[in-house]
Amino acid sequence: MPVSAKICGLSTPETVDVAIRGGASHVGFVFFPKSPRDIVPERAGQFATSGHVGRIGVFVDPDDALLAHAVAGARLTGVQLHGDETPERVAAVKARLGVEVWKAVPVRTRADLDAAHGYRGAADRILYDAKTPKGTLPGGMGLRFDWKLLDGFAHPLPWALSGGLDVGNVAEAAGLTNARLVDVSSGVESAPGVKDVDKIAAFLQATGRI
Ligand SMILES: O=C(O)c1ccccc1N[C@@H]1O[C@H](COP(=O)(O)O)[C@@H](O)[C@H]1O
C-alpha cells in the first residue's frame, strides 16, 4: 500500500498547488500566532484543493471561537490539536465541529506513547511527533524522535508519523515504523515558514516510491 503524505504549514497558492499536483493526501494550515507559518483562515480558504484532499488546520490549545472561525474560513475538513488538549477536550471539539480530529502526541521515550491510548474514542487519528524543548513551538521544529520506539506498539487509533521528516529520511522512517501516512513541514522549507516547491515535489516523489 502506498504511503500518503500531508504537507503542512502552507501559506501560498503555489505551494498548495504543487502539493496537490504531487499527490498529497492532505494539506495543512497553521493557526497559531507564535508560528512562522501562521495564516489567517480567510487566506487559507482562498486556496483551491481537489475534493479528495483533506484540509487540516493545526491548532495549539485553541478556544471554540478560533476553531469555529478557522473551520469555516479555511474550509477545513479536519483539525490537528497540537497542544495539551485532554481526551475530554478532544472529544468535545469533535462533537462540536463534526470534522475529523487528529491529536498530536509528543514522543521522546517509549512511555510517551502511552498517552495515545487515552484518545481512543475521542480522536480520529494520532499524530506522533517529536517532543520539543520547553519554551519552543510544540511542533514544526524539524525534530525527529527515535522511530524504533514505535516498533511493536499497539496503536489504539489510525495514526500518522511526523517530526523532522524530509526527502532523505522518509523512506527509512516509513520502513521502520510501517507508517502509512507521513506529515512534513520544516523538511520542505528553505527557511522557517518559507515552503520550497522543489522540496515539496521531491518529498512527494519519495513517498510515492515507498
Ligand atoms: O508548523 C508549525 O509551525 C507548528 C506549530 C505548532 C504546532 C505544530 C506545528 N507543526 C506541526 O509539527 C509537525 C512536525 O513538523 P516538522 O516536519 O518537524 O517541521 C507537523 O505535523 C506540523 O504539522
From TrEMBL:
<feature type="domain" description="N-(5'phosphoribosyl) anthranilate isomerase (PRAI)">
    <location>
        <begin position="5"/>
        <end position="206"/>
    </location>
</feature>
<comment type="similarity">
    <text>Belongs to the TrpF family.</text>
</comment>
<dbReference type="InterPro" id="IPR001240">
    <property type="entry name" value="PRAI_dom"/>
</dbReference>
<keyword id="KW-0028">Amino-acid biosynthesis</keyword>
<dbReference type="GO" id="GO:0000162">
    <property type="term" value="P:L-tryptophan biosynthetic process"/>
</dbReference>
<dbReference type="GO" id="GO:0004640">
    <property type="term" value="F:phosphoribosylanthranilate isomerase activity"/>
</dbReference>
<keyword id="KW-0413">Isomerase</keyword>
<dbReference type="InterPro" id="IPR011060">
    <property type="entry name" value="RibuloseP-bd_barrel"/>
</dbReference>
<protein>
    <recommendedName>
        <fullName>N-(5'-phosphoribosyl)anthranilate isomerase</fullName>
        <ecNumber>5.3.1.24</ecNumber>
    </recommendedName>
</protein>
<dbReference type="InterPro" id="IPR013785">
    <property type="entry name" value="Aldolase_TIM"/>
</dbReference>
<dbReference type="InterPro" id="IPR044643">
    <property type="entry name" value="TrpF_fam"/>
</dbReference>
<dbReference type="Pfam" id="PF00697">
    <property type="entry name" value="PRAI"/>
</dbReference>
<keyword id="KW-0822">Tryptophan biosynthesis</keyword>
<comment type="pathway">
    <text>Amino-acid biosynthesis; L-tryptophan biosynthesis; L-tryptophan from chorismate: step 3/5.</text>
</comment>
<keyword id="KW-0057">Aromatic amino acid biosynthesis</keyword>
